[in-house]
Specification:
- By secondary structure, this protein is α+β, with helices and mostly antiparallel strands.
- It contains 3 helices and 8 strands, in the order ααββαββββββ.
- Strands 1, 2, 3, 4, 5, 6, 7 and 8 form an 8-stranded mixed beta sheet that branches.
- A hairpin with a 3-residue loop joins strand 5 and strand 6.
- The N and C termini lie far apart (39 Å).
Length: 134
């Protein structure tokens, strides 16, 4: 598959919250996942099973889902990116909003790297940015 096709399918599946299907279908076995340094997730994860486990864990921590979005992909060579955001209530952490740019690198028809750059705010009106303290 081409980068454009993968980006388009990613977008379509993201609209349906089919995150596990995205990983199972389009991620390379040795995929790398990079989170912001102040993220509550591990900053670096390698391997499809580990990246999938991280996604499943994140989903399991959502107590309430109010809204979300994913933008159409932007393609640049072997990269594509999407904008993404959610208004959610996390277990034990309250309601939060976040917006992020997700950048994906594709090689041989598979996603080999994902990287997230995000801003978020908590229910108390505190804003956090990709590399600021929480």
């Amino acid at each position: 598959m081409t980068v454009d096709q993968i980006g388009h399918h990613y977008y379509l599946l993201a609209q349906q919250n089919k995150w596990e299907e995205i990983i199972d279908t389009y991620y390379d076995d040795e995929v790398e996942s990079i989170e912001p340094s102040n993220s509550k997730s591990q900053p670096y994860t390698k391997g499809k099973p580990n990246v999938k486990a991280k996604a499943v864990h994140f989903t399991s921590m959502i107590e309430e889902f109010y809204s979300g979005y994913t933008t159409q992909p932007v393609i640049a060579g072997n990269l594509f990116s999407v904008g993404m955001g959610m208004d959610i209530k996390m277990k034990g952490a309250g309601r939060m909003n976040f917006d992020e740019i997700c950048i994906f690198t594709v090689r041989n028809g598979k996603i080999i790297r994902e990287e997230f750059i995000m801003n978020w705010s908590d229910g108390d009106g505190h804003d956090y940015h990709a590399d600021e303290g929480q």
